[in-house]
């Protein structure tokens, strides 16, 4: 079973809220401090947690108290990416915490670089490079590793609004770095009507780097929820909720996929057949057509393509390039998929790959579907002058004999 976590962010996400949620889930503050001090910043801060109330609900607030000696110098001088990366690499942190921390700072540097028009390694982080932000990011990664999280998911994020004071003066909310991080990841966002800074660059970098997907919570057996408090009171409880759970044994998993549709009435069926091949070549999961009647009773086809979100641009490029359509509709849907694997069986005419799928039944792993690969059966049927149906039957028979 896979250990899952889900970031539910009704009032956004910030680094200190992430720390609060993981401490609320049981990660010891002493452990975080001990590991963070390997970065060589022990004299610059103190980490403490307290129980607070936000909108009448209890949550954990984590404070990163900067020492007077370093309070102003850390913020004023900031740090560049190579210096931060060197601190993390030399600290001998747990492997996953190190890799996640480096990835978050790299993504943040790319976003800040795009905003300011400089190379990522030249970005002067200001607040983000200060000690409190390093503690927030590295501490969050240490906590997720300590909890044993294997996959992290995140809800859509609220945009917030208004203005905020930053190192470069007054900035509109969302601040440019946050917008850049969202656009780099294709992050789903919405307005909850609260005109405050709800998502900080640190929080956005953590979510967009570590989240496997954004949207509704994944299917899981829920074990515990950690509550991380934000710094201010808002019209709704300013709390980040971190759900902790596991996948149900052998249960179907859910993923977000894109569905592309367009109708066509002025293209040869042979061209559409070629479009199928081209779409599968760039990674489409499935492609199909349906006959439809269009305006003025013209007969046409509805072309539907199912693909993963990272393949949308490639599939749309094929449709625009190979058909006469002028527009493509796009929706995102949840797809439930069974656990499956490819097995190979030997028949008297040669090897055939067989796709086997399972699902949970009475708490055990039960076979839901067995299908020999079409192309393998076609090839052997041609080679040995057999009907395809007979080759398919022999492959199924071989699989069941092997199972027994």
From TrEMBL:
Pfam families: Ni_insertion
Keyword Lyase recorded: yes
InterPro entries found in the cross-reference section: Ni_insertion
GO molecular-function terms, A-Z: lyase activity; nickel cation binding
Keywords attached to this entry: Lyase, Nickel
Family to which the UniProt record says this protein belongs: Belongs to the LarC family.
PANTHER family hit by this protein: NICKEL INSERTION PROTEIN-RELATED, PYRIDINIUM-3,5-BISTHIOCARBOXYLIC ACID MONONUCLEOTIDE NICKEL INSERTION PROTEIN
Name of the protein: Putative nickel insertion protein
Species whose genome carries this gene: Aliterella atlantica CENA595
